[in-house]
Amino acid sequence: MASIAARSASQSLRRSLAKAAVRPATQSAKYSLLARAAVNRASAATPAGVSAVQGARGVKTLDFAGTKETVYERSDWPLPKLQEYFKNDTLAMIGYGSQGHGQSLNARDNGLNVIVGVREGGESWKQAIGDGWVPGETLFPIEEAINRGTIIMNLLSDAAQSQTWPELAPLITKGKTLYFSHGFSVVYKEDTKVVPPKDVDVILVAPKGSGRTVRTLFKEGRGINSSIAVWQDVTGKAKEKAIALGVAVGSGYMYETTFEKEVYSDLYGERGVLMGAIQGLFLAQYQVLRKNGHTPSEAFNETVEEATQSLYPLIGQKGMDYMYNACSTTARRGALDWAPIFEKANLPIFEQLYESVRNGTETRKSLEFNGRSTYREDLAKELAVIDNQEIWRAGKVVRSLRPDYKPESE
Ligand SMILES: NC(=O)c1ccc[n+]([C@@H]2O[C@H](COP(=O)([O-])OP(=O)(O)OC[C@H]3O[C@@H](n4cnc5c(N)ncnc54)[C@H](OP(=O)(O)O)[C@@H]3O)[C@@H](O)[C@H]2O)c1
C-alpha cells in the first residue's frame, strides 16, 4: 500500500474555500464542489489525532509498488490561488481539436484569461464560435493569438505543429511561455524541425485521456490524470507553471516525467494495448472462433462484449487479481496457465515496438501520413475497412440487444 508523506494545509485550504465561496459562480463552482467533497471525504476517513487534510490531501510522495514518486494535486491550488497566479497572463490556446477544446473551456471556467487561435473560417473556428469564443475578442487567427498571449499553448495537431513552426517560431518572444501536451514536436526535432527559442520556458502538461474526457470529468467536478515535464527553464519557475497550468486545464493530479519519457510511453502505449494490440488480439481470437464454426454473435460475445462489459471494468475497479478472483475456478485456471504464454509470445513484439518509437520510425510515419493534404480522406478509408470487418459489424447487432441500448449512439 502507498505510504503517505503529508503536508499540513487544512487552515489555508479552508480559508481559500471560504473565499472561493463568495466568488462569482462561473469562477468557483467546480473548485468549491470538489474541495468540499475532498474535505468531507478526508474527515470521514481520517484516524483520530490526524488532521483531516493531512490524512487525505496534500499528498506529495507516494510509494508506487516500491518506487517513490512525487505527485501534485489540484487541492494544493485552490481557485483564488490559481487566479492570482495567472492574473497577469493570457493563455493563448493555439488549435481547437479535442484537447484545445477541453483544456481551453476548463481554463476559462476556472476564471482565467483565455483566448483561442485557429485558422480563420476553418472547422475549428466554427466550433470555437459554437462554444462561445468571440471573434476579435477571444477568438483570433493563430498569429494574432500568439502576439496577444503570454502562455502559448501549442495544441495544433502534431503534424501541423511541425508544418507551421517556421511562421510561428519568430512570434514566440522572450518572456512568453511555450506549452505542449505531447513531447512529440521537440523530442523528434530532427524530423519536426521544432526547436524552441532559447529564452522562453518550455513546458508540458499531457492529459492521460481524450480531450473530451478532460472536459467531461472537469464538469463532473472530477479531474483527469496528467503528466507534467519541463524542457527548458529560463525563469526558474517552469515546473511550478506547468503544475499550475495542469490544474488550470482540469487535471486532478499530475505526475512528473520528461518530454522524452512522455512521448515514448505515449506512442508505445497507444500502438500497444491501448489501441493497436487490442484490435489485433480481438481480431485473431475472433477469426479462430469463426474458422471453427462459431457464429458471429458467439464469437463477438466471447471476444469483445464480455471483455468490455464485464471483465475489464473489474480490472479498472480493483486490479487483475480481483478480476481473476471474480471468475469461475475453471476460467481462472486456464487464464493463469495461458497468461505467461501470451506474455512470452508478445514480449518480442513490444520490444520491437518500443525501438520503433525510440528511433523515430513511428514519428516519421505519423508526420508523413498526417501531413498529407488528403489525410482526412485517407484516414476515413482505413477506418471504413475496420468498420466493415465482420467482428465490428456483428458488434453493432450485439450492442443493439443491450437493454439500455440507444439507437442514436451508433
Ligand atoms: N487527442 C488526444 O487524446 C490527446 C491526448 C493527449 C495529448 N494530445 C496532444 O494534444 C495536441 C493536440 O491534439 P488534438 O487531438 O487536440 O488535436 P488534433 O485533432 O490533432 O489537431 C486539431 C487542430 O489542429 C489544427 N490544424 C491541423 N492542421 C493544421 C494546419 N496545417 N494549420 C493550422 N492548424 C491546423 C486544426 O485546425 P482546423 O480545424 O482549422 O483544421 C485543429 O484546431 C497534440 O500534440 C496531441 O498529441 C492529444
UniProtKB/TrEMBL annotation:
Protein species of origin: Coprinopsis cinerea (strain Okayama-7 / 130 / ATCC MYA-4618 / FGSC 9003) (Inky cap fungus)
UniProt-recorded name of the protein: Ketol-acid reductoisomerase, mitochondrial
Q: Which NCBIfam families does the record cross-reference, listed alphabetically?
A: ilvC
* Pathway of action: Amino-acid biosynthesis; L-valine biosynthesis; L-valine from pyruvate: step 2/4; Amino-acid biosynthesis; L-isoleucine biosynthesis; L-isoleucine from 2-oxobutanoate: step 2/4
Compartment(s) where it occurs, according to its Swiss-Prot or TrEMBL record = Mitochondrion
Principal localization? Answer: mitochondrion
Q: Where is the KARI C-terminal knotted domain?
A: 258-405
Tell me its family. Belongs to the ketol-acid reductoisomerase family.
Q: Where does Mg(2+) 1 bind?
A: 266, 270
